[in-house]
Amino acid sequence: MHTFDALAGGWDATCGASGDPQVLRLSAFRRVRRLPGPAAPPAHLVTYRCACGDEHGALMSSAELDWLPVAATFGAHYDLMTGRMGRDPDAGPGLWARSMQRGHWPVTLRCEHHAGPVPAWPSCLRALEPDEEGAARWYLVHYVCPLCERRGSEVMRREALELVPRAA
Ligand SMILES: [Zn+2]
Ligand SMILES: [Zn+2]
Question: pLDDT tens-digit profile of 3-57?
Fold first, then answer.
């Protein structure tokens, strides 16, 4: 199981070489492969670029990959002192709801077969190619469009691959 740290903006992962804990951000993803088979919900093998410089694999369910980044924002509003949800228990998903209403989904794609931006999830991504490994500003992103299921590619800024809700 991978948990999602809403403040760090990534999943927890472990370096496959040193065993050190890592924050796995979406921008470190290099390939996402949906595992074959009738498994429902489907599982995904995420190959990511680790801080150690190597690539490792992480097995993630659809819920971990797509839902945790939205749902875990709850955690950031959990009151450690009282052990209860903060005053505004809807603040986490509320942030995402407002962000999505403004067109900022966890991932927003531009598929040539639709007039507007396509709301999407991390599991729609297939491969990320940074302009420069280690100092990436742009990525060539390959995806499967969730609306028409066609494959496509687009250039995205690094900021477009941050899993933080944007209110404005
Ligand atoms: Zn590593
Ligand atoms: Zn499409």
Answer: 888 888 899 999 989 999 999 999 999 999 999 877 677 899 999 999 999 999 9
Find the 57 Cα to ligand 1 centroid distance in Å: 10
Q: What are 84's two structure tokens?
A: 């209860």
Structure tokens at 61: 């369910």
- Residue 81's pLDDT band, with cuts at 50, 70 and 90, is low
Q: Compute the half-sphere exposure of residue 94: CA atoms within 13 Å on the CB side of its CA.
A: 6
Cα 122 from Cα 129, distance rounded (Å): 15
Q: How far is the CA of 132 from the centre of ligand 1 (A)?
A: 18
Cα-to-centroid distance, 152 and ligand 2 (Å) = 8
From the CA of 17, which ligand is nearest? 1
Relative to the alpha carbon of 111, which ligand is closest?
2
- In angstroms, rounded to a whole number, what is the distance separating the alpha carbons of residues 13 and 87? 31
Q: What is the dihedral of CA 133, 138, 142, 148, to 10 degrees?
A: 160
